[in-house]
Amino acid sequence: MFERAGRLVYRGRWTLLVLSLAVALLVAPLGMELFGRMADGGFEDPRADSTTAARWNDDWYGGHAPDVVVLYHHPTVKARDPRYRKAVHDALRALPAAHVEALATYWTTGSKLMVSEDGRSTYALVTLKGDKQAGYAAVEDRLRRATNLQVSIGGPVPLLKELNDQTAADLARAEAISMPVLLVLLVVVFGSLVAAGLPLLVGAFAVLGALVLLRLLTEVTEVSVFSLNVVTMLGLGLAVDYSLFVLKAFREEIAAGATSEQAVVRTMATAGRTVAFSGLTVATALLGLLVFPQMFLRSIGLGAAAVVLVAMGAALVVLPAALGVLGRRVNALRLTPDLGTGGRGGGVWHAVASSVMRRPVLYLVAVAAVLVALAAPFLHVTFGNVDHRVLPAGSESRRVAEIVDRDFGRNSMAAVDVHVLVERSFTEAPARPGPLGQGHAAISAVTPVTPDDADPLAARLRRLPHVTGVDVAGLSQDNGAVRLAVRYDVDPMSAEAQRLVTAIRTLSPPEPNVRRVVVGGPTAAQMDLMDSLAGRLPWMALVVGSVTAVLLFAAFRSVVLPVKALLMNALSIGASLGVIVWAFQDGHLASVLTFTSTGTVEATVTVLILAVVFGLSMDYELFLLSRVRAEWLRTGDNTAAVAAGLQQTGGVITSAALLLLVVIGAFSTAGITVVKLLGVGLFVAIVVDATLVRALLVPATMRLMGGANWWLPRPLRALHRRVDLHEPGGSAGSRGTPALPLPAPAPPAPVPAPRGHSCDEGGRARPKGEGGPRWERISRERDRVVRATPDGAGWTWVEVDR
């Protein structure tokens, strides 16, 4: 299948390149429209009680949820001074009614909570109409024109604007940092400026694809503002990674004397096959995020999976087409000696492979101990939520939120919302009784709702631990509801606050006049989020694990290797999450990475890291096992296959990991803490995976398992043969090059079987056991082909599927 794809790409190389360039130019303006269309938040479960409470706040209580918080301050004059009131109200009256829905100040509400403890600061709440971002842009300048007062602006809409601006700046900075460094490293790896530029070309296609795909997603669903950096980082990193493997294989084919067409075809059949399986595996892990109801996870899952497939497609279509055009000119503009990315002979990877094969138990125990130690901090993880502290310390929106929280009533904007739905009774007989549907409604009026209806419940709430006050915050006659604001004296994310919410939700027996109580607010939202994530995480693990296992079975014709790969990935994920807790929750990297430690780790970002790390870890697993599998098919010797696979892929995996680390490291400089957290998690996971896990732990484990690595039950062999995804049997040296079939070859002479092997019907040696490579009888579906031996000294017959 991949050989046929390679021939099609080569034959249509010019057409594919022209079409790819034309499409890129046409869709580029669409991608640029993404900025400003993304949404803040998205961390809540839409079906949770806390989300319902937040929606009722907006819809039921006359006033609307504020979009802008305008903070006023005077160094000497206090808010009770009439001059203070006049300055604030004069500024607010100048706002255009076309953009402003509602206003609230200390003087219009009489709320003492809207005046700071020193009396010299107050804030106004502004609700906007229609397009919030456009409305804010229209009124921002006028909001700052209060006479003789210091004005700062925060709230949800300004916060989103700052997030959008910060995201765009972070993206530009990350690309400015990573692109030159990537170019230098690629020149060092390949020696040629032309070869070094090709992965960056594929990366540019992936970044553009990320922007366009996210822009299209905004037409059908909300897209998180945090998704841009995440999706772009993955697209650029994996595009460079995949291009490295394809480019290396093509250059080796050219060096071995193949024509441009042969090189493209053989590259697609080997490196292309591995890239395809890798892309599908990574995309599967990311699509696992769709099992969660949170918009943040769903939008990133969709966008990231799509951009991974774009990166894979560019590496399998655009890059081979360009290589077909360039041919041997891929090595043009040589600047340095070609250091390569691995080799067949000695060197450091030969030494590493030899050492691991001699002492597998020692390496297994030592590496496992290191990974467990790295994962240990995760045992004391505390999950929190995303708030204003994700922005840099100098952000105006963040500063306003911190001042309100510090200088005004404790948790004045983070109260527990308690919505009391009152059981109302009929008050009078209908004035004009008559049949329903004939102009008369035989339904009596009901008693109006008053704050008194919630007094018994409010009295019980005041007696709960840490409660400092219970106020009536809203009344809805249409819906028969009273909204209570429960204020407390502990941190909203603390265990005490969570126990308070639990106590409110479990108050019993309910008041006789109350039909339902719904609890919301930041603490309740965090608790509902954790319940939602915990309930969906096993389903994500089941779906992603099952699909990944099937893909690995199709790739490697084994039922043992998929299980081993899943276990290895669990170790990489554990190490990454442990370092995140140490760095962010415990704050050990706060000064280095310039962020504010909140003492917690955001739960949804942790799930995102789990999915992305799983996909990236499986990426390198596929590259290593593909080479080991090819050697196993050629020799039937598990130890030799593992050693040769590690020796031949160690350099290229290390180079690919280094390039990916450059991209992730550049994005880790982002000003948004969520992106920093994700970047650090991925950075650690890749370092651990490319060094400890793939270079040492996986080879040691496979060495100890021996031929059991390749065990496949008899019923599954026929199933695997029906799928046209087989790898080319045997390989020409380290390249894994599929040989061209020769016409009507004579059968090879029998070869004596080595110890531990048996012979097939033709007298040729084959390994013992169910898992070893077998030579079946020649049929209409199979051919005999000639391949070079690994040392290049001779030739051998090998049978392959047609």
TrEMBL record:
It is found in: Cell membrane. The chain crosses the membrane at residues 12-32, 181-214, 226-247, 275-296, 302-326, 361-383, 537-556, 565-584, 604-625, 657-686. Residues 727-778 are annotated as: Disordered. Gene3D superfamilies: Multidrug efflux transporter AcrB transmembrane domain. The keyword Lyase does not apply. Keywords: Cell membrane, Membrane, Transmembrane, Transmembrane helix. Residues 185-325 form the SSD domain. Residues 757-778 have a biased composition (Basic and acidic residues). InterPro entries: MMPL_dom (IPR004869), Mycobact_MmpL (IPR050545), SSD (IPR000731). PROSITE patterns: SSD. It is a multi-pass membrane protein. Signal peptide: none annotated. Its main location: membrane. Residues 740-753 have a biased composition (Pro residues). Pfam families: MMPL. PANTHER family: MEMBRANE PROTEIN MJ1562-RELATED, MEMBRANE PROTEIN SCO6666-RELATED. Belongs to the resistance-nodulation-cell division (RND) (TC 2.A.6) family. MmpL subfamily. This is Membrane protein YdfJ. It comes from Nonomuraea coxensis DSM 45129.
